[in-house]
Amino acid sequence: MYELMAWLQGSALGHAMRENGVWTYGIVNLVHILGVASLFGAVLVLDLRLLGVWRRISLSAISEATVPVAAIGFAVAATSGLGLLATKGTEYVGNPFIYIKFPAIGLGLLNVIALNVSSAWRQHKTREPTPCEQSTLAVMGGISLLCWLTAITAGRMIGYW
């Protein structure tokens, strides 16, 4: 892990983050927060619907609005997060919250893949889920919330370690 962080810190991105003035880190941090907020805001709405909230609104209608926002939010958060990590990556090696955050993100992404291959999700644009499918979707929504809340909490705690 140390070698990877040392490489990232020594990369052109790491140098740019440290050498382009104090505002660089602040702006990249703000972009990261906006990406995380977009990701989690969209995920929260979708996952609550998967858990059974707002059943009067079709899953298709909610997913059409939230999935693109979540995807863009994730891309922005991941890209800007690399910049933040590159600033002083070697200092994070001993931080236990890094070892919580990244697996939580990985599990969240695996849950997205599992959701996308599930028959309930593949059919959600043409019909509402059956009660059995709704139960499966609710479990996936709960797992998603757990993963993303864990990643966000651990990410926030990194700065306090």
Give me the Rg, rounded: 18 Å
The overall pLDDT average reads: 95
- Number of helical segments with 4 or more residues: 7
Main pleated sheet? none
Structural summary, described in words:
By secondary structure, the chain is mainly alpha-helical. It has one domain (2-160). It is 79% helix and 0% strand. It has helices at residues 2-10, 12-19, 22-50, 59-87, 98-117, 119-122, 131-158. Helix 2 crosses helix 4 (59-87). It is elongated.
Architecture blueprint of SSEs:
Layout: H1 2-10, H2 12-19, H3 22-50, H4 59-87, H5 98-117, H6 119-122, H7 131-158
In short:
The chain is 79% helix and 0% strand. It is mainly α and 161 residues long.
Main features:
161 residues, mainly alpha
